[in-house]
Every structure is written in C-alpha cells, then in structure tokens.
Amino acid sequence: MTIGKKIIPAIIAKKQEELDELLSKVINIVEIAQLDIMDNKFVPNTSLFFDFKLPETSCIFEAHLMIKKPEIWIKDNWEKVDTILVHYESCSNPKGIISDVKNRGKKIGFVLNPETPVEKLSDFIDDIDQVLIMTVNPGFYGSPFLPEMLYKITELRTLKPKLDIEVDGGITDKTISLVDKAGANLFVSGSYIMKAENVKGSIDSLKKRYQSNHRKK
C-alpha cells in the first residue's frame, strides 16, 4: 500500500482579515490547510479563537485544537472543518470525543506533544483517522525542530502501517526528508510556507525533498 503524501500549510491568525489574507496564498495550490486554534491557555498564544468564516473552496480544512476544552469548540464549530485534531493532553474523555466527532460525520485525529508517548493512544488508536506528532513545542511559527521526535514517528508507523501520520513543527526543506524517512506522510509547515515570498515555490521545494527520498531507494 502506498500512503498518500501531502504538504499542509498551517494558518495562525488573530483576525478575520489576517485569516483571509493567509488563506488566499494557499487554498488554490494545496489540498488541505490546517487551522491552528489556540486559546492562550493550553499554549501561550491566541489564534482563530473567534467566530471565523472560511471561503468556498475545494481545499479542505483541518482544525488543530491547541485549547483546554476541545469539546466546547467542537460543539460550536464542527461544521466549519473536515478533520478535527485534538491534543491528548487536553482531553479528559478521548473515547467520548471520538464518538462525538464521528457521529457528526467528521474525521478525528489525536495530537501528541513532545513529552507524550505513543502508547497513550493504545486504547483507541484503531478508532481514529490520523495521529499528529508535534516536532516542536506548540504555539508559534518558527519554533525549533526536535529531532528526538523521529523515533515516535517510526514507532507509530511500525505499530500502524496504514495510518495517516502527520508531523507539525519546524518542517522545512532541511527537515522534511527526516520525518518522511521516519514514516510520516502528512507534513504540516507554518512559517516556511506562510512567511515565504514565493509560497508555491516553498511548497514545491518541500515536495521535491520527499520525492527525491523515494527516487534514491
């Protein structure tokens, strides 16, 4: 089985106008965009923690919930996105959230902060659509990549060969080959894409890096 690989830009915005501007740079050139939702409690930053609007587009959206009470956000906002990514560390009832999101017809994934081991997901890993491994401490564009997280990606890929494994944090043309070789197939990149003068060029450079990995084999 060949698992599809995708580059996913991460969007951090404090106002609707900023969201609109950032989305206009990427929604016509990527299949998926990640919306970083932050409440300034779970992480020390705020993003998209307002009643935002999304454009009509063929691009699909996933919500990365870096917030303390994900179940409340899901109840009020689930219709806006296609996939909901919940931090294990913020969730008191994982199986309840999985059931709730699936009953709403959406995909559900769990996110692991650097300090959280893969085995924390063992009770419900067969019930979720994807896992996001944080390769930085979350909350800001441009945080330093943590190479010690590569083992978690490999561990998870060995455990679940067909699972969508996403990585987020410090993904650039210098690091994408590392996470690709470790076993990830969905690559979230924030500042490398969103702060680039040539957004499409940055996305293409990331694709070329993981494609060259596989040509070498």
Describe the structure.
- It is a single chain.
- With 217 residues, the protein is an alpha/beta fold.
- Helix content is 31%, strand content 22%.
- Strands 1-2-4-5-6-7-8-9 form an 8-stranded parallel barrel, surrounded by 6 helices.
- Helix 5 (176-182) packs across helix 7 (199-215).
Supply database-style keywords.
217 residues; globular; TIM Barrel; single chain; eight-stranded parallel β-barrel
Poorly predicted ranges: none
N-to-C span: 16 Å
Question: Architecture in CATH?
Answer: Alpha-Beta Barrel
What does the main sheet amount to?
8 strands, parallel, barrel
Say what the CATH topology is. Answer: TIM Barrel
* Neighbour order of strands in the largest sheet: 1-2-4-5-6-7-8-9
Envelope shape = globular
Percent range of helical residues: 25-40%
Chain-averaged pLDDT: 94
Main structural class: alpha/beta
Radius of gyration (CA) equals 16 Å
Give the H and E element order. Answer: EHEEEHEHEEHEHEHH
Query: What percent of residues are in strands?
Result: 15-25%
- Total strands: 9
Total of DSSP H or I helical runs spanning 4+ residues: 7
The number of domains: 1
Short structural summary:
Helix 5 links the parallel strand 8 and strand 9. This protein has one domain (6-215): TIM Barrel (Alpha-Beta Barrel), CATH 3.20.20.70. By secondary structure, it is an alpha/beta fold.
What is the fold's blueprint, element by element?
Blueprint: E1 6-11, H1 16-26, E2 32-39, E3 46-47, E4 60-66, H2 70-77, E5 83-87, H3 94-103, E6 107-112, E7 130-134, H4 150-159, E8 164-168, H5 176-182, E9 186-189, H6 191-194, H7 199-215
Parallel strand pairs: 1-2, 1-9, 2-4, 4-5, 5-6, 6-7, 7-8, 8-9
Antiparallel strand pairs: 2-3
